[in-house]
Amino acid sequence: MSIHPTAIVHSSAELAEDVEVQAFSIIDEHVRIAAGTVVGPHCVITGRTVIGKNNRFYSGAQIGILSQDLKHKPGLIGYTRIGDGNLFREFVTISASTLEDSQDEDRLTSIGDHCLFMACTHVGHDCRVGNHVIMANCSALSGHVQVCDYVTLGGLAGVHQFCRIGAQAFIGGMSRISMDVPPYMIAEGHPARCYGPNVVGLKRHGVDKDARTNIKTMYRLLYRSGLNTSQALEEIKKSVPETPERETLLSFVLSSTRGILK
After folding, report:
1. What is the pLDDT of residues 186-230, one digit of tens each?
2. Known catalytic membership, residue 143
3. How far is CA 30 from CA 14, 49, 94, 104, 131, in A?
4. Measured in whole angstroms, how far is the alpha carbon of residue 245 from the centre of its chain?
5. What pLDDT score was predicted for residue 102?
6. Active site residue 83
7. Residue in 125, 144, 149, 201 annotated catalytic
8. What percent of the chain has pLDDT over 70?
9. Which residue among the candidates 60, 112, 124, 143 is catalytic per the annotation?
10. How far is it, in rounded angstroms, from Cα 32 to Cα 34?
């Protein structure tokens, strides 16, 4: 274990043998950090935070901090769970959950594996971020947001509380997301609108031509057919082959409480 003399690590914190903590960083009492993780200078890791293997925190990152929710009870120590292989660049802020006595998946701030959080990004309390997510500079998630796997958020994009962003969606820079973004789609604007399938991203993630064709068909039925959402979903069930992509999109839209982007 390599801990810089100016760093402050609480005696009750649990750090793997090869964890590195650089100058002037603070690791609080309830924190657990697994092997291969590097905590850069001037970082604060606090709350009931569990961090997996091979993560990297650059200077000024603030992880597991008290949420910015005005209803947050004084003295509450929330939960944050982080997977493996994530990069947290300069001044990233991750807020802990607003419940201290819950391990419910919906009431944790959780981040999966192999995500990139560029400088000054923010993940609010009780958010659930999947795997291979990229958040570009100064993008931000309000509380209780769900971001599925392989999502990319452009710089300065903002996501409203309780919104969901489906798998492999792409959010353009400076967009304002106030409704759910269906899987595989591109959303952009202020307020955001859906502009079609994320074809480039789908190709990069190995989605084959037939699946991409089905996704384009589902987009046209949802957004270009003149049908309302319920009618479009029924038509998708009839005319699109039963594939994982179809089931993912149908499940996402049917479970939406805020509604999907127009």
Report:
1. 999 999 999 999 999 999 999 999 999 999 999 999 999 999 999
2. yes
3. 8, 7, 16, 18, 25
4. 20
5. 60
6. no
7. 125
8. 97
9. 143
10. 7
The reply to whether 113 belongs to the active site is no
Please report, for the chain, the start and end positions of each structural domain, with discontinuous segments joined by +: 2-147, 203-254
Tell me: the pLDDT tens digits for 66-105? 999 987 777 888 999 999 999 999 999 999 999 766 666 6
Lookup result for tokens 């929330």: 78
Per-residue model confidence (pLDDT) at position 103 = 62
Domain 203-254 superfamily per CATH: Udp N-acetylglucosamine O-acyltransferase, C-terminal domain (1.20.1180.10)
4 close to 20: Cβ distance less than 8 angstroms: no
The reported pTM is 0.96
- Catalytic, out of 28, 126, 149, 180: 126
Q: What is the pLDDT of residue 262?
A: 87
- Class of the CATH-defined domain 2-147: mainly beta
| Tokens at 195, concatenated | 């502009």
The mean per-residue pLDDT over the stretch 38-48 comes to 97
